[in-house]
C-alpha cells in the first residue's frame, strides 16, 4: 500500500507541475523496484544502494514505468527492464 501511495504522490506532483528533485525521484524508483525484487529489509537497503549507484539519474521513462507497475511486480520486471537499463558506461 505504501508503494501505491508513494507512486501516487510523485505522479500527483508531476501532474501539478511541481519539480520533484532528481534525488527524490531516483530514491522512489529504486525503493519501489527493490521492494519487488527483494523481500528481506536488510537486503532491500543493499538493493537500493546498488540501484542508485547503477541507475542514477534514473531515466524518466524508467521511473514512470516502475511507479506504474508498483502493484504488479511480476510484470514490472518484464515491462520496465528495457526502460531501466543503465546508461552509465562501464569502465
The description of the largest β-sheet is: none
> How big a fraction of the residues is strand?
under 5%
Number of domains: 1
* Large-scale geometry: globular
Q: Specify the number of helices.
A: 5
Structural class estimated from helices and strands: mainly alpha
- Proportion of helical residues: 55-70%
* Poorly predicted segments: none
Rg, Cα atoms, Å:
12 Å
The topology string of helices and strands comes to HHHHH
Strand tally: 0
The end-to-end span amounts to 39 Å
What value does the average pLDDT take?
Answer: 81
Tell me about this structure.
This protein is mainly α and 91 residues long. It has one domain (2-80). The chain is 68% helix and 0% strand. The chain contains five helices and no strands. It has helices at residues 2-15, 22-37, 41-55, 60-68, 73-80. The longest helix is centred in the first third of the chain and has 16 residues, at 22-37. It is globular and about 30 Å long. The model has no long low-confidence stretch (mean pLDDT 81).
Amino acid at each position: 500500500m505504501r508503494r501505491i501511495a508513494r507512486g501516487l504522490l510523485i505522479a500527483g506532483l508531476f501532474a501539478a507541475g511541481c519539480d520533484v528533485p532528481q534525488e527524490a525521484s531516483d530514491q522512489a524508483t529504486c525503493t519501489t523496484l527493490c521492494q519487488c525484487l527483494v523481500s528481506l529489509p536488510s537486503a532491500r537497503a543493499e538493493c537500493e544502494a546498488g540501484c542508485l549507484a547503477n541507475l542514477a539519474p534514473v531515466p524518466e521513462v524508467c521511473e514512470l514505468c516502475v511507479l506504474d507497475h508498483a502493484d504488479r511486480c511480476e510484470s514490472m520486471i518484464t515491462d520496465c527492464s528495457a526502460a531501466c537499463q543503465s546508461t552509465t558506461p562501464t569502465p
